[in-house]
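Reviewers of the previous submission asked for a worked example of the structure-prediction workflow described in the proposal, so we include one complete record here. The input consisted solely of the amino acid sequence. No template or homolog information was supplied to the procedure at any stage.
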Amino acid sequence: MKARARALEAVRTHRRVLVRLGLWSVLEAGQTFLAGYALARALDDGFLAGDTRAGLLWLGAAGLAVAAGAYGTGRVYGVVAALVEPVRDRLVAGVVGRGVREADTGALSGLTQQVEIARDTLAGLVLVSRSFLFTVVGALVGLFSLAPLLLTVVVPPLLAGLCLFAATLRPLARRQEAFLAADEALAEELGTVCQGLRDVTAAGAEARVAATVAESVDAEQRAARALARWSVARVAALAVGGELPVVLLLATAPWLLRHGVTPGALVGALAYVAQSLLPALQNLVHGLGTSGSRLTVVLRRLAPPAVFGERRPVVRSETPRTTGTPPPAAPALALTSVTFAYGPASEPVLDGLDLTVPAGSHLAVVGPSGVGKSTLTGLVAGLLEAREGAIRVCGHAVPGAEAAASRVLIPQEAYVHGGTLAENLGLFRRDPVPEAELLAAAEAVGLTPLLRALGGPGGRVDPVALSAGERQLIALTRAYLSPAPLALLDEATCHLDPAAEAQAERAFGARPGGSLVVVAHRISSARRADRVLVLDGSRTACGTHDELLRTSALYRDLVGGWTARPTAPVR
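From that input alone, the workflow returned the following C-alpha cells.
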C-alpha cells in the first residue's frame, strides 16, 4: 500500500513530464509499427502484385517513420532529464541531511559516487523501460493489423520469457549486492595491504597477509559465481521471449500461409520480432537485470528519507555521537603497556610502554635511529597494530573511527597533488576552507611566501616543481587546518631550516585545543617541547629537557651529537 501511494504521488507530481514523455514515445513507436506493416504492404500490395511504385512508396513511408522516430528519441532524452534530476536533488538532500544529523562519514562517498550512480542508472532504466513498453505495443498492434493469427505464435513465448525474467529480478539483486559488498571488501583489504608492503616484507608476514587477502578473493569469487548462475537464467529468458518466436514463425509458416496469412504479413511479422521485439527485450533484460539491481543496491545504501515521498522518523541514539572532539579531561594520547614487534619471532621494538600526553601539551620523541620513533607514531595513527596493550587518542580506542578523526599524521615524505593550493590545503576538511582562515594558517605555519609565489590560494600546484621543503610546508599547513586535535609530526620538518621548523612547531603548539607529538631530529625541537620521551629499549625515559639532561645519559649523548652536527638547510 505504501509503495502504491508513493507511486501515485510521484505520478501526480510529474504528470506533465510523463505526458510529454508519452507523446514523444508514441512518435518514436510509430517507426516500430511501420517497420513491419510497411514492409508487408510493400510486398503484398506492391512488389508481389506487380506494382513497383506502391512498393517503393511503402518503403519510403517506413524510411520517413524512422526519421520521425529518431527525432522523437532525441526529444525523449530531454524529458527524461526533467524527470530524473529532481530525484537526484532529493537524494542529495537526504544524504546531506543524514551527514549533518548523524555525522555520517560515508556522506562524501554518497554524494560523489553513489548519488551519481543512482541518477545515471535511473535515467537508463526509464529509457529502457519506456522503449520496451512502446516498442512492444507498436509491434503487437502491427501484428494484429497484419493478421491476428500471428499473435498466437508470438505472444505466448514473449510472455513466458518476461515471466521467467521477472522471477530472476529479486534473486539477481541480492546476488549483485553480495558481489558489490565482496568487491568493496577486497578493495579495502588490498588498499590497506598495498600501503604497508614494505612493513609486511620487513616483518616476514607475507604468508599471513596472503592468506587474509586470499579469503577476500575467494569470497568475491563465490559471489561472482552465484551472480553468473543467475545470469544464465536471464539469458534463458531472452532466448524464450525474443528468439523462440522467430523459430516458431518459421516452423509454423506453412500452417499460417494455409490459414490466410499472406507472405508479406509473414515477412512483416519476422521483421517485428527480429528488428523490434528482440532488441527491445535485450535492452530490458540487460538494463533492468544489471542496472536495475545495481540501482536497488545503491538506493538501499543511501536510504535517504523522503526520496520517493516516504518520510521516516530520525532515530537518535541514547549515547551522543562523538565526532573527534575529546571528552573533558581526556588526555590527548594514552598508551598502556603497549608492546609491538615486526614479526612473531622478532624482538619487541616497544615493550610495555606506558605514556600519557595531556591535552594541549607538546611532546618530543627522541632516540637513536631505528629505535621505534616512527613505529610509535604508526601505532598511534592506526597504521600498525600493537601486539599487547591499549592506545587511546583523545579518549577513543585505536583502531576506531573516532580515534582516526582525532589525530592527523604528517610523515617525513610530504604528499602534494595537482590542482589548486586551496584544494591541497583543504583535504582534511569536509567543506572548503574560508580564505581568511586559510591565509591565517599559512601565516602561522610559514607558508605565506610560497602562497604568494603560487598566486594565492587559487594558484595551481605542480608537485614536481616544488622542493622537498615546500612540499613539507604545504603538508604541515594542511594538517594545521585539520579538525583533528592531535597532530603527529614524524620528522615532518626535516627539510626545513631551524627557523622554519621552529615557526611550524610553535604554530602547532599554539593551536586552540591542539596537542602535538614530534619525532625530533634537532636539539631545538626537544627544547621547545613541554616534555621529551627518550626511546631506547629498556632505557626509556620521559621528562623535561632540563630533567633529562640531569638524569639520562642517553639523552645527554643525543644532545651532544645534535650540537656537533651541522644545521641542515632548506631543500
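Residues 98-112, 303-327, 566-571 have pLDDT under 50 and may be disordered. We consider this example representative of the routine output the project will generate in years two and three.
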